[in-house]
């Protein structure tokens, strides 16, 4: 059997009609099996093998994961019904409608076997959805019993309306179910004094946050951030701090989570955790992850940053210490990512870092391949260097720490795995190292050191060879800027053709020239 390229959490497979029906039996009640027997044809259409279903491994998943899988399948099937309806594939529309009907009933039956104290509103939506699915199936059954084009055309709009209503009821029911489950988990965390029960509830809550931003919003609106910070303020739950903080970092990717964090004075709590040496490294690392999340430059909401500035000095100090004492690459990555993000929104952070001798610590860490072991870590370090390089005092620190050599090495950054994420990280490392060189080369001593380390030939190669920079325009612009700065300080380092094409013209003209170059030109 071949595997579909779908999210791994879905465990979906391609099978023929009979095998799919056999698998479906495991998820249907007896009455639904009769429905399948009567209405599901063994189709010979070529797209039949693309039917979506749960794998037989579903029994190993917890109840919520099973619910989410079932919901994903229903949502996907509804989309496919709309596509088949558009093409007037009535037989396919009907068989898929029957299958959705079965999945909806099974989902509701399964959920009701493990849920407790579900609301009256939820039961009402369950009935509405089941009734509408039955109506939907009846509509499509009438369509396959006629060949009159006019009748089919008139029924098509009714079916479209019914399909839309089914999708709306389904979305509302899922929203209610997920809200209900989030409330149950948070209630368990609030009321339990047992470490085991609390740990289990937090673990389930974390799993929900991994299902996307929408679930994070639901959890935040139900007071998830407030509840989790209460755990982080109780010594009896210290062993759960890492897991709790990891869940908080996930929830704080949405604005509602950030609002809750501000409301509960979460930044002060994070600062207390980071500066408390009695906590484990794992706890400090997860606290750093929350800081990295809430200070991400990609976030458009910044209402929490005022209270962050009040605690910034002690947070930055703790993060530098964590970088210096990190026992693994993962811990260093989390701490350096938090520092990198902090340097984006306040120059005071760069001044604090300079006072803390952070430049020397970061440059020393880069020479330890056990700690700085991936392009992602080097991306964080070079981001900090680039942002600190706006300070005049930074140049001497870089020279003393052999930083120019490191920047030169970063210009050669290449992906070892070839994954898109790693390739993108390598591009950022190249770009930011070029930016840092351009900024630092205001200082003649830095420029001289860069020239002696053959930075100019490397920058020229990156400009002229698209494959060297992975066809990245941002790397090209940064390299042109660095090359022009070094050419001013050391004009003898360039051949005339390089000067005429890469330095003398306007930057935009040099950029256009380099982006139009064929590889054979190099």
From TrEMBL:
SMART domains linked: ARM
Ranges in coiled-coil conformation: none
Record-annotated Protein inscuteable homologue C-terminal domain positions: 70-522
Domain Protein inscuteable homologue LGN-binding: 13-57
Gene3D superfamilies, per database record: Inscuteable LGN-binding domain, Leucine-rich Repeat Variant
One MF annotation (Gene Ontology) recorded for this entry: cytoskeletal anchor activity
GO biological process, one term: apical protein localization
One Pfam short name: Insc_C
Record SUPFAM superfamilies: ARM repeat
GO-annotated cellular components: apical cortex
Protein name from the UniProt record: INSC protein
Gene encoding the protein: Insc
């Amino acid at each position: 059997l071949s595997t579909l390229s779908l999210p791994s959490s879905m465990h979906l497979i391609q099978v023929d009609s009979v095998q799919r029906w056999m698998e479906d039996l495991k998820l249907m009640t007896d009455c639904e099996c009769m429905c399948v027997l009567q209405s599901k044809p063994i189709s010979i259409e070529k797209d039949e093998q693309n039917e979506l279903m749960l794998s037989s491994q579903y029994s190993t998943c917890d109840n919520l994961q099973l619910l989410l899988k079932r919901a994903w399948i229903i949502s996907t099937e509804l989309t496919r019904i709309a596509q088949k309806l558009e093409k007037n594939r009535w037989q396919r529309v009907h068989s898929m409608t029957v299958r959705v009907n079965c999945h909806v009933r099974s989902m509701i039956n399964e959920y009701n076997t493990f849920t407790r104290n579900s609301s009256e509103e939820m039961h009402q939506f369950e009935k509405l959805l089941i009734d509408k699915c039955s109506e939907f199936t009846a509509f499509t059954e009438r369509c396959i019993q006629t060949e009159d084009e006019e009748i089919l055309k008139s029924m098509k709009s009714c079916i479209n309306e019914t399909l839309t209503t089914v999708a709306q009821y389904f979305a509302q029911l899922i929203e209610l179910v997920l809200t209900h489950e989030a409330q149950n988990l948070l209630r368990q965390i609030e009321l339990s004094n047992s470490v085991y029960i609390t740990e289990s509830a937090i673990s389930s809550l974390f799993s929900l946050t991994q299902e996307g931003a929408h679930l994070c919003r639901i959890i935040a609106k139900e007071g998830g951030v407030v509840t989790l910070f209460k755990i982080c303020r109780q010594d009896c739950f210290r062993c759960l701090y890492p897991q709790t903080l990891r869940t908080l970092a996930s929830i704080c990717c949405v604005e509602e989570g950030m609002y809750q964090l501000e409301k509960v004075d979460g930044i002060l709590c994070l600062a207390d955790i980071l500066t408390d040496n009695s906590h484990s490294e794992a706890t400090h690392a997860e606290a750093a992850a929350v800081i990295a999340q809430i200070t991400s430059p990609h976030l458009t909401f910044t209402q929490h940053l005022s209270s962050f500035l009040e605690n910034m000095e002690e947070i930055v100090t703790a993060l530098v210490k964590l970088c210096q004492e990190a026992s693994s690459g993962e811990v260093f990555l989390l701490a350096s990512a938090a520092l990198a993000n902090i340097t984006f929104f306040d120059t005071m952070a760069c001044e604090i870092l300079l006072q803390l001798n952070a430049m020397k610590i970061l440059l020393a860490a880069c020479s330890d391949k056990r700690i700085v072991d991936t392009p992602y870590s080097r991306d964080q370090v070079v981001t900090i260097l680039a942002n600190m390089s706006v300070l005049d005092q930074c140049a001497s620190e870089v020279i003393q720490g052999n930083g120019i050599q490191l920047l030169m090495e970063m210009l050669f950054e290449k992906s070892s795995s070839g994954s898109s994420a790693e390739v993108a990280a390598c591009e950022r490392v190249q770009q930011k190292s070029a930016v840092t060189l351009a900024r630092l080369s205001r200082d003649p001593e830095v420029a001289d050191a860069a020239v002696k380390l053959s930075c100019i030939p490397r920058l020229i190669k990156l400009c002229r060879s698209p494959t060297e920079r992975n066809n990245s325009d941002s790397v090209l612009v940064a390299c042109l800027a660095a090359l022009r700065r070094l050419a001013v300080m050391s004009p003898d380092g360039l051949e005339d053709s390089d000067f005429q094409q890469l330095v003398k013209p306007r930057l935009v003209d040099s950029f256009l020239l380099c982006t139009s170059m064929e590889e054979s030109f190099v």
